[in-house]
Amino acid sequence: MGRNHGLIKVREQVVMAEQVAAIGGEGPYVTPYWWQAAPRRRFDDMPLPAMADVVVIGAGFTGTSAALTLARAGRRVVLLDAGAPGQGASSRNGGQVGSGNQKFKVAALTAWQGAARASALLREGTAMLEHIGALIEREGIDCDYTVCGRFRGCVRPEHYDAMGRDMEDLRRVAGVESFMVPRAEQAREIGSDYYHGGSVLPNDASLHPGKYHGGLLDRALAAGASVHGFCPATAIAPERSGFSVATPRGPIRCGHVIVATNGYTDGLVPFLRRRMVTVRSAIIATDELAPGLVDRLMPKRRVYGCTARVFHYFRPSPDGTRMLWGGRVGGALRGDAEGYRHLAADMARVFPALAGVGIAGGWSGQIGYTFDDMPHMGAAGGIHYALGFCGTGVSRATWFGDKIARKVLGDPGGASAFDELIFLSHPFWFAAERAVPWVEAWYRLRDSL
Ligand SMILES: Cc1cc2nc3c(=O)[nH]c(=O)nc-3n(C[C@H](O)[C@H](O)[C@H](O)COP(=O)(O)OP(=O)(O)OC[C@H]3O[C@@H](n4cnc5c(N)ncnc54)[C@H](O)[C@@H]3O)c2cc1C
Question: Which residues touch 255 (CB under 8 Å, ≥6 apart)?
Answer without folding.
Answer: 52, 53, 54, 241, 242, 243
